[in-house]
Design a protein that fits this description.
The protein is of the alpha+beta class. The chain has helices at about 25-30, 55-65; strands at about 35-40, 45-50, 70, 80, 85. Helices cover about 15% and strands about 20% of the residues. It has a five-stranded antiparallel sheet with strand order 2-1-3-4-5. The longest helix is centred in the C-terminal third of the chain and has 9 residues, at about 55-65.
Amino acid sequence: MTGVWVDPHLEHVRPVVPRSPEGCEECLQLHSPWVHLRLCLTCGHVGCCDSSPLKHASRHAHVQGHPVVASAEPGENWRWCYVDETFV
């Protein structure tokens, strides 16, 4: 019997509204550039991706314990789990 693996961290996903739809919360305060944006699916934090200089999205995920993000880029529709390092 073959089962389908479901990431247990999806239990942290909530309906959220981006807290700073104009960009990365921390980068906006620091006047720092970013490459791509990620939306925390637990609290709505908007952070910059790991290709950005300061990597705020992954830092937020690890510090706050909010494991799943979605791309906040127009036209992209995917989610990533930082704990399991996989698309979910």
